[in-house]
Amino acid sequence: MYAEKLKRKSVCRWIIEPFGAMRVPINVFADETLVKDMDEQVYRQAANVAALPGVVKASCAMPDAHWGYGFPIGGVAGFDPNEGGVISAGGVGFDIACGVRALTTGVSCDDIERCKESLASLLSKRIPAGVGSRGKLELSPSEMDDMLSGGAEWAVSRGYGSQADLARIEERGKMAGAEPRFVSEHAKQRQKDQVGTLGSGNHYLEVQRVSALYDEGIAKAFDLALNDIVVSIHCGSRGLGHQVATDFLPRMVKAARSEGIELPEKELACAPIRSDLGKRYYSAMNAGINCAVANRQVLTHLVRQVFADLLPKAELKVIYDVSHNTCKVEEHTVDGKAVKLYVHRKGATRAFGPGHPALPADLQKTGQPVLIGGTMGTASYILAGTEKGMDLSFGSCCHGAGRAMSRKQAAKRWHGNDIVRHLSQKGIVIKGTSLRGVAEEAPGAYKDVTVVVDATEKAGLARKVARLEPLICVKG
């Protein structure tokens, strides 16, 4: 029904014009192969988003898009509060501000090879990972509120990193408008000892080698060179973010009904931005964003300690830290006018272009670093945002490879031991707390990340800067 309505606009951009209840078109960014393999449910969910009140310009699906909870994963949409726009917990997701942080290290491949097994073992020992993993920090109620208000800035004030780190984090590591009082006590209880933990699922910590450069000028600005060693951390807001979504979704279902908003599926639950519930969710979600960046800041500190013990000459500096499950107030051009929108990115990465005022001075010419996680057996990528992407997709692009099959399907098809053995033969050390978890995250369970990234670049959403290949992967 939806796929047959796709019209090609450029080599990697397709459009579905509004029909039925849709208020705006759907933009699909993908090559022919990705479009062919994309689940029909992605288009259906993107169409549902395009029918929500106050949506502007287009409902977007990134090259890694797949079926999600209400919104498609890889979905982007902007809502105008002046036009009755809504905010949706389903449009942000359960792992609020799940994202990636990448760090340069200043050490060589030879340095890593000489201590690869020891480094992998120590990282696995020092970095709490897995379902229900707990860290050494146990926050009191007042400390919890300080963390939810302060984000990475709070972590740095506690000695976990430096001010230099904050300059390379979205919003300088502290999301304004966070209100801990709107986060339930149950959510806070779940998080009290989870700051500084990876969690499970697709979260990971990787030691990677820069295997290719595509734009040497931007790579130099990002302090990247061929064969450099990079550490990437992928995780989010853990139990707290999940509970915030769990708390607000049923309330939003009721709110939508009372506002006369038709929900094709309840997971699309939303509330008017300017409603009391909408404001409360936005404030609680911002606290969730701060939780996630504080989490990655503490993990950065733990990684630095491991490197200091084994590779004393290492100096780990933040390239960037960017989230991919958020709703943020941003200024974008709509019908030739600058408008403040509530931009939802679910499984999509912010990718601001050169000259954007949100970027630090030393990144003004390059555009924002965009961190794209791949799989533990293939590669990840660092991209840079573009001006074209600002117009096409609200300054957004893909966030990873995108699943090609469910975790249940992957666990039936692969065995964790076999994957660990196979990747070891390729020189990749896997440290996982669960062999089933390793099987669920098998490289074959995902789309080809290179195809996804190439489509992203061809669509004009971001440009390729560097390819990173894994040497060590710590998973929950």
Give a description of the structure.
With 476 residues, this protein is an alpha+beta fold. It has a single domain, classed as tRNA-splicing ligase RtcB. Helices cover 34% and strands 25% of the residues. Strand 4 (55-66) and strand 5 (73-79) form a beta hairpin. The protein starts with 6 loop residues before the first strand and ends with a strand.
Low-confidence stretches: none
- What sort of overall outline do the alpha carbons produce when their principal axes are compared? globular
Major beta-sheet overview: 8 strands, mixed
Number of helical segments? Answer: 15
Termini Cα gap? 39 Å
Going by helix content, strand content and strand pairing, the class is alpha+beta
> Could you name the CATH homologous superfamily?
tRNA-splicing ligase RtcB
Look at the structure and give the CATH class: Alpha Beta
Count of DSSP strands:
19
CATH topology: tRNA-splicing ligase RtcB
Return the CATH architecture: Alpha-Beta Complex
- Average per-residue pLDDT, rounded, comes to 96
Give the domain tally: 1
| Share in β-strands | 15-25%
